Amino acid sequence: MRNVHSKLFTPGPTEVRPEILQAMATPQIYHRSPEFRELYAELQPKLQKFLYTEQTVLLLTSSSTGAMEAAVQNCVGKKCLNFVNGAFSKRWHEITAACGIPCEALEVPWNVAIKPEMVEEKLAGGEFDAVTLVYNETSTGLMNPLPQIAEVVRKFPDVLLLVDAVSAMGGVKIEFDALGLDVCLAGVQKALALPAGLAVCAVSDRALKRAEAIKPRTYYFSFPVMVKSHKKNETPATPSIPHLFALNAQLDAMFAEGLDRRFARHEAMASAVQRWAKQHFDIYPEEGYWSQTVSCITNTRGISVDDLNKTLVQEHGMRISNGYGDLKGRTFRIAHMGDLTVADVRGLLATIDAILGL
Ligand SMILES: *Cc1c(COP(=O)(O)O)cnc(C)c1O
What's the whole-number average pLDDT of the chain? Predict the structure, then answer.
């Protein structure tokens, strides 16, 4: 096995800084000790500041998919509307159905954004009491207009808005309270730039009330069970303690950089890649909805994405991603999220130019 590190321009896992890996290696503490409760209590206000909320931010020891499952298990009473325009939003519909929860998918072509009018029209029927939306579709590099959609959902007081912000959180500002979200979740291996294995999940008081009122569908992912421990600065089961140390260090680093500066850095990285992609290829999603954290580039030149990636990995120590699922070969993806810099991104683009003779 070769064990040479390639810098990751992949949409999760993303590149993790050595300082964060070092924090992961902090000696273990007992999860029922004052030291643990102190760590947990220290994390909570930082997470609230990070997500612009005064409500509860839970930490789940699972990848994002677990948190997606938790959201629908805890928050759907009547029926869930799953908006689908990519692989992960499709997965959320499949999860909802697999949990035996009444649901319906509204699917649009994957290069098209979910528009507020579609949301309003579907909710007006009064059939649904929860909506799932993937903010940033990592499979297609498309960002749905979350603020406008949230505004529409808020006109329906009984409808909870559940948001997968997996590849957005940490790269894009998400004002949980101001937007009136009910669940906002993300695994930490994307724009938060930690190794995979933990999910951050903000939950509104309204969502907690719903979770208390419905018949429990889960134990491990039960919000009421988690909240009971949360109030004691604990988790119901043993959490991934290395992740908590690393997340604490990463939140400090983000505040040191400045959240607004962090988001501006993501914008700058995104526009560098978008400009390059428009010049040499094309961009998969419709204009106006390009992601700020990952670009899905249409392979208009018919290059071999596998060969390009092989050369990048073997000769330059960098890795990008092929297209997701059916989009493999027809598109490729460059992630520009987490702790990467504009210089990193420019370096990657210059290297691809040299390889392809652009
Ligand atoms: C990566 C990703 C997921 C799945 O994440 P896991 O952590 O692998 O479970 C879900 N939604 C989106 C938008 C993603 O980018």
Answer: 97
